[in-house]
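README: folding subset

This subset contains proteins for which both the sequence and a predicted C-alpha cell string are available. Records are stored as plain text. Below is the entry for ABM domain-containing protein (201 residues), shown exactly as it appears on disk.
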Amino acid sequence: MPVLEVCQLRLKDNISATDEVLLKNLSAVRSIIKTNSQFYHCLEDPTRIYILGIWPTLEAHQAFLASAEKEDILGIQDDQLEFQWMIHMGLDSMASLPLDAPVMAIARLFIKDGGHADAYARLVANHRSLIVDATKPYKVVDGWRCDLEPGKHEALMFTGWESVEAHKAFTAKAREENEEYATVRDHYEGMEVRHARNMER
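--- output ---
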C-alpha cells in the first residue's frame, strides 16, 4: 500500500526557505528518489520545513533509509537541513492532498489509549462533512499513522485553507456551535497543528 511520508526538518543558521540552492538540492533529491515530493514552509515556525512524498510501501522507504545510497543522495542537504521527525500514513497519491490551497494545515492528534481511537474515528466520520464544506474547494485527507508500535494511535489530517485565520475561525465556530464535535478533545492527549505554504510557488 502506498504511504505518505511527512518529514519535518529544521533550516540551519543563515538558510532561508527561499534559498535557491536549498530548493535546487531538494528538487535534485526528489528527481532521484521519485516520490513526487512537495516542499512546505511552516508559518508558525519559519525555521521548519516539511517534505511530503509518496512511497510505494512503508517497507520501501525503510529500505531506502537503511541503504548505503541514502547518505549519497541526501548528503547534499546536510549543510542546510537538520532532521526533526518523520511519520507515515497510508495514501494513494499526492493528488489526494490539498496541494492547490494557499495554506495547508497539518494536524497530528495523539489519541488516548483504551478505545478512544474508535470513538475518535466515529466522531470524525459523523462530522467530516462539516470540515469538507468549510474547506471547499480544497481537499480534506485524514487517516492513521501507520508506523507506530501496536496499540498506539496517532490520527493525521490535512486540510486546505485560504489563510491561517480562516482555519482558526472555523475551529472556534465549530466547537462553539456543535457540542458533539467539540467532544473530540476528550479522545486525544495532545494535538499539534501547523500551517504551511508551498515553497515552490
